[in-house]
């Protein structure tokens, strides 16, 4: 089972693990009013709302192992009272990791695993 965890992301005063597990994704949908794919699109294309970034980072800190009170304090201190824009990229990365996994977790496909129903190139 994959964790979709992104490690050592700088948030506010230090480096933290970020991860959105199913429980955090459900809460994130409730907080933002959209599913994770639409949220990822908004974060990438710049049409995000303030809550999109704040709630993604807060819930990802909790999913990464930080207790909820500390995550709230950290987000309040550095995102709400500080600079929001610097957290758009990590927010989008953690949402994409939740949807698709992180690159080092994706399984490698070997030639033996090739789908026999897919035609291979014909050699002359």
Q: How would you describe the overall organization of this protein?
A:
The chain is mainly alpha-helical and 124 residues long. The protein has one domain. The chain is built from 5 helices and 2 strands, in the order ββααααα. It has helices at residues 22-32, 36-45, 50-63, 68-80, 88-100; strands spanning 6-11, 14-18. The protein has a two-stranded antiparallel ribbon. A hairpin with a 2-residue loop joins strand 1 (6-11) and strand 2. Helix 3 (50-63) packs across helix 5 (88-100). The longest helix is centred in the middle third of the chain and has 14 residues, at 50-63. It is globular. The N and C termini lie far apart (43 Å).
Based on the model shown, name its key terms.
two-stranded antiparallel ribbon; 124 residues; 2 strands; mainly alpha
Write the layout of secondary structure elements.
Elements: E1 6-11, E2 14-18, H1 22-32, H2 36-45, H3 50-63, H4 68-80, H5 88-100
Antiparallel strand pairs: 1-2
Model regions low in confidence, pLDDT < 50 over at least 5 residues: 116-120
> What is the count of β-strands?
2
Strand proportion, as a percent range, falls in 5-15%
Q: What is the average per-residue confidence, as pLDDT, rounded to a whole number?
A: 83
Which structural class matches the secondary elements?
mainly alpha
Write down the overall geometry: globular
State Rg.
18 Å
Treating each run of at least 4 consecutive H or I residues as one helix, how many helices? 5
Query: What is the count of structural domains?
Result: 1
Largest sheet: 2 strands, antiparallel
Residue share in helix: 40-55%
Biggest sheet: strands side by side, in what order?
1-2
Secondary-structure element order, N to C: EEHHHHH
Rounded to the nearest angstrom, the distance between the terminal CA atoms is 43 Å
């Amino acid at each position: 089972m994959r964790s979709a965890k992104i490690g050592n992301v700088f948030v506010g005063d230090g480096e933290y693990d970020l991860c959105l597990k199913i429980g955090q994704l459900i809460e994130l949908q409730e907080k933002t009013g959209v599913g994770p794919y639409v949220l990822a699109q908004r974060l990438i294309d710049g049409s995000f709302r303030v809550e999109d970034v704040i709630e993604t980072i807060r819930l990802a800190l909790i999913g990464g192992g930080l207790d909820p009170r500390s995550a709230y304090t950290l987000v309040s201190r550095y995102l709400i009272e500080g600079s929001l824009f610097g957290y758009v990229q990590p927010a989008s990365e953690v949402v994409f990791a939740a949807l698709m996994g992180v690159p080092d977790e994706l399984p490698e496909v070997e030639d033996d695993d090739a789908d026999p129903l897919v035609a291979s190139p014909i050699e002359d």
